[in-house]
Amino acid sequence: MPNYLSIRAYSRQRKGHSHHYHQLVLPLRGAINIEVEDYSGKVVPGECVIIRSGEIHHFTANEEARFVVADMSKLPENISQSEQLIFSINSPLISYLSFIEEQLEYQVNTEIEKIMFSTFEMLLAEQTLLKQTDRRIRLVLEYVLENLADKLVINELAKIACLSPTQFKKLFKDQMGLSVLQYITKVRMEKAKALLIHTDYPIQIVAEQVGYTDLSSFSRRFLSFYGLTPSAVSR
User: Fold this and answer.
1) Strands of the chain, DSSP E
2) How many CA atoms lie within 13 A of 37 on its CB side?
3) Staple partner for 163: which of 54, 57, 167, 202, CB 3.0–4.6 Å?
4) What per-residue confidence (pLDDT) applies to 45?
5) Residue 192 pLDDT
């Protein structure tokens, strides 16, 4: 059934089939081993695999693994125009998958499920289709998101990735299309803007939550990034 979200579990027994609709598989816990087109490998939490209509694919997984599966009659433009089969998803969509799981396992409500699917589509359309992220870089991305209020030093991030600082900076740029510092600034400014718009936190508190102890330094960086002062976007 197209335009439908479900929670799935698979088995270690290799199976294969195709559908008359598109399907996206997004791991919640555990990995799926999948063969589709010229790709054969694992897809893990934080990633999405695209299975296009009519595409024969084979898959296996541990029985305890869980996945959000989206059956779709039409793919968002950013996905339909991309040649990538596997891509990394952003934090808002990762968080939304947890809500989908809770709701679908809690109750059957057709209207809520329609709204959930529409929201899923909109979040999907916001994704920048980055290639599968190297496991070492993924560990750093997770650390950065969880520690934005702290001082983030390249040497320490390189240790998390088990790379030298030079190797780490090169691999990060190759994977993310941004330098480490550019990425950290981007994530900090995006979170700061969301906090300023959607909460009543004072600007000083917002600055501290994204790693700035000096308010004037935070304001200059925010102005440079968005062309607006923090007070201009604050509630």
Assistant:
1) 4-8, 15-17, 22-29, 32-36, 39-43, 47-51, 57-61, 66-72, 86-88
2) 11
3) 167
4) 83
5) 92
CB atoms under 10 Å from CB of 67, counted, come to 25
Residues of the chain whose pLDDT is less than 70? 1, 130-132, 235
pLDDT computed for residue 1 by the predictor: 62
Q: What integer pLDDT is reported at residue 128 of this predicted model?
A: 78
Contact call for residues 184 and 152 (beta carbons, < 8 A): yes
What is the rounded distance in angstroms from the CA atom of residue 142 to the CA atom of residue 89? 12
CB half-sphere exposure, 36, CA atoms < 13 A: 27
Nearest to 61 by CA among 94, 28, 85, 106: 28
Beta partners for residue 23, in sequence order: 51, 71
- Give the residues across from 40 on adjacent strands: 35
CA 7 to chain centre: 18
Per-residue model confidence (pLDDT) at position 159: 95
Half-sphere exposure of 129 toward its Cβ, with a 13 Å CA cutoff?
Answer: 16
pLDDT given at position 10 = 87
